[in-house]
Design brief:
By secondary structure, the chain is of the alpha/beta class. 40% of the residues lie in helices and 8% in strands. A hairpin with a 5-residue loop joins strand 10 (462-465) and strand 11 (471-473). It binds 3'-phosphate-adenosine-5'-phosphate sulfate.
Length: 479
């Protein structure tokens, strides 16, 4: 019937003198074309990324507005800057990679030899330049592009995240109070801001946490004297190397841009804030109120301004990329952005309701019954985590767990999956549930081992001093 119709139409079009061979070929082309068309209409995975085995069976159309004909990006390098919400972003990358069976470039310990500039040998299982082995790289490092390029495929998508340097300084001071000598010596952040030069010695290890920390993480000289020309050169280097720079203060808008840049489904960028510090409120519940900072972190407006000046290179970077960020939002469309942010937030609320106890409120580590998901603690304040809703079915529980599993534990899990037969190296600090809540009270201990000098860094990282005095973190703790 269809064939008869088709031949009649062909006759009308003047195709009388076709031989049987040509006719057969034409029929074949038409059938193939119709097949493609039906495939496009009915196979959504062509137009939308395949939804990872995700939390709950929700209809496809709840995965956010369609993304067009893009393909999900699977080669990703995220520069995990410090105290910028980067652990929340890392969690999303871990989840997506795990669900899609991607391979992670993981550090031997928990960061890639930080604070030394990145070298490819820090990647576990690295076999040499341009051996395409890894899909995602995202743990803390001091960025150094030529070495990163040895590890990651040429079509890798590079992105990172920035935060207002004043907020970042508060977070960094709270977290690294006992780690950065400049912070340790001052009475409080306000005192430090009033006269940073009194406390800051650029030669002392870990003082990079106290000055232009973003600039440092991007691999630039964070102690350089500020000049506009220098700041613009640094900014240009970041622009050259990174396709997208997110802004922590606009986290949800950032996630929308990221989702579109990576062509990912909505669930992949829905997250719960990880690594938040507890801030004591005056209310009876005694819980988090961002306004109520402890006395040692309180700042006057003048001190805030001084911190901007002290971190002038970071301040420049932040302002420049904040402006670029809003240009991107403009290009994306304000109304469209608002719609997608609303969708993202409502999805987060649904997931919080399903997954988390107490309506999703973060709690202090000691109150988390499952010790395996307690977050690592450091500094002046308590770092909060989450408790899972009891009584979840196994699949939901696993999906929820992924969203709240702290960075250290998640890295260990992926490491074990990728290297199931690897033996821990001699001297390696094995992460136990106890260790993740332990504060290291005696930083910089030194021991002798097999002719080498071993030193424990503030976070338990085992550093080996060999003859060239290079520090190698074998395995230790984060940050
Ligand atoms: N979604 C979202 N939006 C905005 N801010 C967020 C988010 N998730 C985490 N955070 C805040 O980020 C701070 C922790 O940053 P990091 O995870 O990068 O820290 S670390 O360097 O890995 O230790 C930490 O900041 P402070 O609470 O000010 O210390 C977190 O509260």
């Amino acid at each position: 019937m269809l064939f008869r119709l088709f031949t009649r139409r062909m006759r009308r079009l003047g195709c009388y003198r076709m031989g049987p061979m040509w006719k057969a070929l034409l029929v074949f082309v038409v059938i193939a074309f119709a097949g493609q068309l039906l495939g496009i209409l009915f196979n959504k995975s062509w137009v939308q990324p395949e939804r990872p085995r995700s939390l709950f069976s929700i209809p496809e159309n709840n995965q956010g507005p369609p993304l067009g004909s893009c393909r999900p990006q699977k080669h990703i390098m995220f520069l995990k800057t410090h105290k910028t919400a980067s652990s929340t972003v890392l969690n999303m990358l871990y989840r997506f990679g795990e669900e899609q069976g991607l391979r992670f470039a993981l550090p031997l310990g928990y960061q890639f030899g930080y604070p030394l500039p990145f070298i490819a040998q820090r990647v576990k299982g690295y076999r040499g330049p341009h051996v395409a082995m890894f899909d995602i790289m995202a743990n803390h490092m001091r960025f150094y592009k030529p070495e990163v390029e040895k590890v990651m495929p040429a079509d890798t998508f590079y992105f990172s995240i920035l935060r207002d340097p004043v907020a970042l300084a508060e977070s960094s001071y709270a977290y690294y109070k006992n780690v950065a000598p400049a912070f340790r010596r001052s009475k409080g952040l306000g005192d430090f801001a009033d006269n940073p030069n009194k406390y800051y010695d650029p030669r002392l290890r870990n003082n990079h946490y106290a000055r232009n920390l973003l600039w440092f993480d991007f691999g630039l000289d964070h102690n350089a004297n500020y000049s506009l020309a220098l700041a613009k050169r640094g900014e240009a280097a970041v622009r050259r190397n990174f396709k997208l720079i997110l802004i922590s203060e606009y986290f949800d808008q950032s996630m929308v841009l990221l989702r579109h840049a990576l062509c990912w489904p909505l669930d992949a960028v829905v997250s719960f804030s990880l690594n938040a510090r507890q801030q004591i409120s005056k209310s009876r519940s005694g819980w988090v109120g961002k306004a109520a900072a402890p006395a040692s972190l309180q700042l006057t407006e003048e001190q805030r301004q001084k911190l901007r000046e002290w971190n002038a290179l970071d301040w420049h970077l932040y302002q420049a990329f904040n402006s670029t960020f809003w240009d991107e939002v403009e290009r994306f469309g304000r109304a469209r952005m608002d719609t997608e942010v609303t969708l993202l937030r409502s999805r987060r609320e649904v997931l919080a309701h399903v997954c988390l106890r107490d309506g999703g409120r973060p709690v202090e580590a000691s109150r988390i019954r499952d010790r395996a998901i307690r977050p690592f603690q450091s500094g002046l304040v308590k770092i909060l985590g989450y408790e899972l809703q009891p009584g979840l079915d196994n699949a939901t529980r696993q999906a929820c767990l992924r969203m709240i599993r702290p960075e250290i534990q998640y890295k260990d899990l992926l490491d074990l999956r990728q290297f199931p037969h690897a033996q821990p190296r001699p001297g390696a600090a094995v992460v136990t549930n106890e260790l993740v809540v332990k504060k290291d009270s005696s930083p910089h201990r030194t021991e002798q081992h097999a002719g080498e000098s071993l030193e424990r860094d503030w976070d338990g990282t085992l550093l080996v001093h060999n003859q060239s005095q290079e520090h190698v973190d074998i395995k230790g703790k984060l940050r």
